[in-house]
Amino acid sequence: MKFLKILLTASIVLVSGQAIWGQKTIHTSFPNMPIDTNTQLVTYKDVVTQGGSSEELYERAVKWANNYFSNPSAVIKKTDKAAATLVCVTNIRITTLATDGKTAVLAGIVYYTFTIEAREGRYRYTITDIHKREQTQFPIEKWLDTSKPEWTPARYDHLHQIDQAVKKLIADLKEGMQPEKIIIDEW
After folding, report:
1. Residue 94 near residue 109 (C-beta atoms within 8 A)
2. pLDDT for 31
3. Are 46 and 166 in contact (CB under 8 A)?
4. Is residue 110 part of a domain?
5. 102 is in which domain, residue-wise?
6. In a domain, 102, yes or no
7. Which of 90, 95, 184, 187 reaches 20 to 30 Å from 71, CA-CA?
8. 132 CB-contact burial (10 Å; exposed 0-12 / middle 13-18 / buried 19+)
């Protein structure tokens, strides 16, 4: 009986400690994340006009991915030169502020699927299936529902971190998909 009281007390302390841990937040609203009308998933998608054949754009995409990701062989899941398609599965580390309001503590790792498809004179990128792995995949779309019992104000910060990381990835991709400048050394 005494053991049960100690166990119950320890459990209450741990649970209340977790509730207090990440209460400081930077943001107080959701970022403007694009929701696909068909799938109802957060999906970043755009077609970018870029000079070059589908083969050239595909090769640029592969080169960009190999340079951008620290471990491209683990990230790149599918390369299809014939279809000019590259599929990657990678992640973003999200953090929560500790109660001191300064220290960032790892809150989890959010995974997503990133696809690049090349066509003559254009390419399309799609970033979707954004989820946190827990016992099962936990889609971030659930974080947009403040009525859920697991929702906390820290979700604002987590979603902003994801949004900023994805926008940084997109900007880097667009820069990496530019044709290489040919330097002619005329002397």
Report:
1. yes
2. 77
3. no
4. yes
5. 25-140+153-175
6. yes
7. 95
8. buried
